[in-house]
Each structure stands twice: as structure tokens, then as C-alpha cells.
Specification:
- The chain has about 450 residues and is mainly α.
- Helices cover about 90% and strands about 0% of the residues.
- Helix 5 packs parallel to helix 7.
- The relative contact order is 0.13.
Amino acid sequence: MKQIKEILKIGVPIMLGQACVIIVAFADNIMIGWHNVDELAAASFVNNVLNLVILMGLGFSTGLTPMIGAFNGVNDVKSIGSTMKNGILVNGAIGLVSLVVLSVIYCFLDSFGQAPELLPLIRPYFIIIGISSFFQLGFNVLKQFTDGMRQPVVSMVFLIIGNVVNIFGNWVLIYGKLGFPELGLNGAGLSTLLARTLMLGMFALYVFKGKKFSQHVAAFKASHLSKGRMKHIFSLGYPVAIQNGLEASTFSFSAIMIGWLGVVELAAHQVVTTISLLFFLLLQGLSFAVSILVSNSYGKKDFDGVRKYTKKGFLMMLTISATLSALLYIFRFPAAGIFTDSTEVASIAVSLFFLLFAYQFGDGLQLCYSCVLRGIQDVKPIMYCAFISYYLVAIPCSYCLGFKAGLGIHGIWLGFPIGLTLAGIFFYLRYRYDMHRMNSDVAMK
């Protein structure tokens, strides 16, 4: 019970923060969907492409969490400050590279095979959300610091504030309220940009000007840039970034393939992926808590603690998945109807829910054990296993089942449970290998 209580103590605020992300995604898609189905389809394409860049950036920043968690476990304030300074520089550079990559993608938007009528909607929305992603990456860096310090409530509060700003901005700018023009999809993008800028600004003021982390900020200011430290941060961050990118791009490629089928299918895909985000982010929040506690135990060489937190965390994730799946099954028709008044879109979305249920075990497995591997700073195998699972297995399966076997959107979605489960098995086996190695080292000493 001790491990469960500690996981919940850290995990619940992170999950509530993740819930804020979910609420914004739900609000965006509901408000856009009720405004125009073509705009919902355009949002689906843009968000799936941009999520690839945002999740890769998040992967780099999550390399800070196990380092800060391990230093926090032994109360090494100086090393925490140094890690933050070097981490901000590394992640800032990554953010600038991300903007360059997005600029290149923008130049080739007409080469992705999307419906021609969607391109005038896609282009401006892509620019606005692309700019906002830079502020999101900055927020993620600060979030990894406070999470690693076992203070997840901090980021949760700022996410809630950003949530309120985003939803209110959607109402004003999408529909043209309070004297503002009706901007539709672009209004949703501008609201997101405003919320993300505000969240980063408030978070930075709290961390660097407040009293809570004054010791760490002093250590941050006194520390020097270190090539060795930056190299270590990069070495922990890039495999996770690539793993996140491979997983996100699997969904992005799927969205592109579904776009070949038509606007209705793409809109239905957006409805289901938005709901699937609820499952993913709540499980991810819990897995982050497990990673933080694992990194604390690993820093103290408490390998038995690593094992206990991992086991309890995975069981908790399975429980959450089963509960959410049962609730969605019961309310599947109202859930689809919230996002659109198109009966055709809603019907396809309901049929896809069953495939969403099918990959929950694999998603929980890969989330839990990939975060445990991050916590014990063994990240390179994650990258290789993800490449095999997603690119060599999941994407080809989606294409073959969707187009060669003639199963359409359902065939494309079948690639998800196959790839995610395979990745989870790989990560679990690597964890078992690491635990055996660490126990052997202890026995030899």
C-alpha cells in the first residue's frame, strides 16, 4: 500500500494536469466540429502532424526528469541547478530546430494527399499552432523540473489556468463573440497560442522569481555551462525523443492514410483520437509518477524499491484502462455525438471505439516500462524497440490491412494494438534484463 499511496500522491496532480490537456483537446474539437466538419478534418491533420514535433520535444525534456529525480533523492541542490541550466540550453536549441522542421513541412503540405478543399484551412492553422508549439516546449522543460522535484501540483495549477483561457478564447474567437470577428478554425489556433504563451510566462516567473525554489535558482545562476552535462542530457533525451516521435508519427501516418479515404473518415478519426487522448494522457501521467519514484530509488541504489514501484504502477494502469474502457462502452453513442452532428461521422467513430479498447493493454505496457527504463536511465533500447514495433510492424500492418485487405479505416486502426503491444513486450523484457543485472551487481558487492 505504501507504494500505491506514493504513486497516487505524485500521480494524481500529474493526471489532473494531463486532464487539463484533455479538456482543451475536447473543447477545441467539440467547438470546431460544431462549427464545421471540414474544419474538424483539417484540425485532425494538423494536430496529428504537429503532435509528432511536440512529443519529440517532450521526449528531450523528459531526459531531465530522471536526472533531477535522482539528484533530488540525495538532496544534491548544486547538481539540480546545473542540470536545469544546461537542460534549458539543450532544449532551447531543440525547439529552434523544431521550428525549422515545421517550416519545411509547411512548404510541402500539398504533397500529403489531403482533400484539396482542406488546404486553405490547413495552412493558416498549421502556422499558428506551429508557433505555439515553441511555447509548449518551454513549458514542458519547466514541468520536468518541478515534477522531478516531486512538486507536480505546480504545473497542474498553470495548466488549469491555461485551460480556462483557451476554452474562453475558443468561444470568443471561433464563434465571434464580444465584438470579435468569427474566425472559426483560426480562432481556435489563436486561442491556443495565447494560452500557451501565458502558461509559460507565469510558470517561469513562479520558478525563477518565487521563494519555493530559491535555493535551486541560486544554484542555477552559480552553475556553469558544461559540455559533459549537456552531452549527458542529450544522451538521455534523444532516444526518448525518437521513441516519442516514432510512436506519434505512427498515428500521424495513419491520419495521412485515413485522409486518402475521405473527409468523413478523417473527421471520425479525429473524434476517436481525441477520446483516446483521455486514455493515453491519464496513463502517461501515472507512468510519469512511476518514473519519478523509480528515479529517486535508483539514485539511492534502492533496487527493491524500483521493482515495487514498477509492479504497483503497472497494475494501477491496467485498472484505469479497464475502468475507462467500460465507461466509454456504456456511453459510446453520446460520446461520439458530442463532437459532431454528422450521423455518418459518429457511426464510424463508434465502430472505432472497439479498436481503441483493443490496444489499451499494449499501450499501458509500453508506457509503464518505457518510463521505468527512463527512470533507471537506460533509454537507448527504447529507441531501437520503438523503431521495430512502429515502423517495421505497425505502419506496414495498417497499410496492408487498410488498403490491400480492403478493411479501410478499421484496417488502418488495427495496426495500433499490434505495434503498441509489441513495443510493450520489448520494454518489459529490457526491464527484466536490467533488474537481473542490477541485482547481480549488488550480490557481487
